[in-house]
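Q: Predict the bound structure with adenosine-5'-diphosphate.
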Amino acid sequence: MRGMMMDRPLRVADILTYSEEMHAAAEVVSSTVEGGIHRESYAEMAVRSRKLAKALQAMGLGTGDRVATLAWNGFRHMELYFGIPGVGAVCHTLNPRLSPEQLTYIVGHAGDRVLFLDLTFVPLAEKLQPQFPDDLRYVILTDAANMPETSLPNAHCYEDMLAAQDDDLEWPDFEESTAAGLCYTSGTTGVPKGALYTHRALVLHALLVGVSMRNSLSMGKRLMPVVPLFHANAWGTAHAAPLTGTSLIMPGPRLDGPSIWELMESEKVFAAWGVPTVWLGLMEEIRKRGRKPSELGELVIGGSAAATSLIQGFEDLGVSVCHAWGMTEMSPIGTLGILSPEQMSLPAEERLRLKSTQGRRAFMVDLKIVDERGDRQPHDGSSTGELFVRGPTVVSGYFSNQEASESAIDDEGWFGTGDVASISREGFLNITDRSKDLIKSGGEWISSLDVENLAMAHPHIANCAVIAVPHPKWEERPVLIAVPAVDEPDPDDIRTHLEGQLAKWQMPDDIVFVDDLPLTATGKVSKLALRKTYADYKLPA
Ligand code: ADP
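A: Predicted complex:
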């Protein structure tokens, strides 16, 4: 028997309308590209998003049209997040850190019709314009006073575009399965692939994040997403913050430790979300200044594994850390390191161990691990296998890529993450590696994440990565590539530190000190780049 409830579609724009009514005074504070701080309430954001929607309609854009953005975290990008899907079009966020080849591929593959871009990216777009589709239109996210001289054909000014419209608009209705957002993976393996989010998935994801992360997200809270809007919905903050009445403090283009510290301090930021590299930078600044930003109380760390030493460093300062795991293909949140009251009362060491895992599943996200044959492995904390996920916020395939879509989903309809993991009886996920980063030495797997985690606890190491280099006898051996935290790091001392905690065959064969580690387009340490650099590395005899 079918139930009898109204079949109203879930729409992204309804989040905006709700925040306009319920959280009118909560605000988006942006450190702008032009310089200075800009403030806008959710009520103002709703009005401006409707003007934007009318401008898009005036350009002839509507259901199914892809509209690209190339922008930092800021108020105008937030307006695009609602205005574009609001009219039924698809908000396609481009990652400016991708290579020129990847960007031109993605814009062409997506079939973008308009590109909205920050001033910062005008030179980049000018360079790529000859390879972009001829009919692509350009809108620069600034006001008339700051409009640059540009070779981009018929570039429009965003503020002029909005000024020409009123906000008299009813958000149009369409099915909740209509595409609302598009984000390509960074393509570290093969060509980039597009995750095509539906309105339904984004609204459910906003609820999932809002329900799980009440410490970061609730009325009166001030949250800084350092994770960019151009990648994986800024982990859902763009939708969950207006929904819950949380103010957003947007760092714009300034993501270094000192800038983040200052904005956190002046804007009384309570929670901040981002990748480990950003928090390593903030920690350095905290050490220099001798204190944390006054109001900082919660940090969400994800995107790549957070070292236990980093988690402990912040917890010691009274900042509660939540280690999270997810993927672009999952909208992106999958698991969250939130402990139950019973787990919070465990001894500090045990608490830290649980917080160092990737946490437990969010509502609506199902997890399974399988061996090479596809057989399910028990959730006993020690069996490992490839991690598969399922749920209404997980992709069912990739945009316009049948081959990749077919290989992404298994026979039971689950999505293969490419991560290798174990799951404990209590549901804690422990990622040991991306399958392509695993090290196989003499037939035994070595978890690079485990070795990195231990190495990061040594005071001479500021950041590090463990990669495999070829070995004539053992096939592969691990090498530790480290950025030192001191002028004269002592490799023997680091070895002794590791020896106590690793089996002999898990020990890195060498330690190489470098000034920096290469980063991917999403700010993670790029093991692909490191493996290339050290492909012919000669291990010490
Ligand atoms: P990209 O690969 O383009 O950087 P994603 O954000 O989609 O984009 O990357 C998802 C992958 O990042 C996951 O499959 C996993 O390998 C890794 N990852 C994300 N969060 C964590 C975490 N907390 N610990 C370990 N790995 C993580």
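A: The radius of gyration is 23 Å.
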